[in-house]
Amino acid sequence: MKPDRKAEFLDKGFLSKRATKVMKRAKNVVRRQEKEEAAKQGLLSNIEEAPALDLNFKADYHQTLFTGRDLSLEIAGRTLFQGLNLAIASRGIVALTGPNGSGKSSFLA
């Protein structure tokens, strides 16, 4: 057979069926990608709505928040402090100062 006559004997039905199958697969892949993109796009949009922040602040009319009298702390036989009187006022600023090892952290614990 001559090379140009081989083209006449090709099964065109087989080729068109195969081309149709490949085209369907390609369209399904595109459809699946578009579906995944749409799902991801939905994740990117802000779908949550935060409720309005409401503090429900009620005025506290107590003048003193904490009062401590004659407080003392002793650890391992060492007295860190004794006879401490403490009053913390409402909306007051408290500073606890002292040298290292004087019991500031122990007092708070």
Rg is 41 Å
Give start-end ranges of low-pLDDT stretches.
Answer: none
Distance between termini? 101 Å
When the domains are counted, the total is: 2
Structural class: alpha+beta
Helix content: 25-40%
Order of helices and strands: HHEEH
Tell me the strand percentage band. Answer: 15-25%
| Helical segment count | 3
- Strand segment count: 2
What strand order characterises the main sheet?
1-2
Quick one: biggest sheet? 2 strands, antiparallel
Task: Note down, in words, how this protein is organized.
The chain has 109 residues and is an alpha+beta fold. It has three helices and two strands. Strands 1-2 form a two-stranded antiparallel sheet. A hairpin with a 2-residue loop joins strand 1 and strand 2. The mean pLDDT is 79.
Features:
2 strands, two-stranded antiparallel ribbon, elongated, 2 domains
Secondary-structure map:
Blueprint: H1 3-6, H2 12-44, E1 64-75, E2 78-89, H3 104-108
Antiparallel strand pairs: 1-2
What would a concise description of this structure say?
With 109 residues, the protein is of the alpha+beta class. It is built from 3 helices and 2 strands.
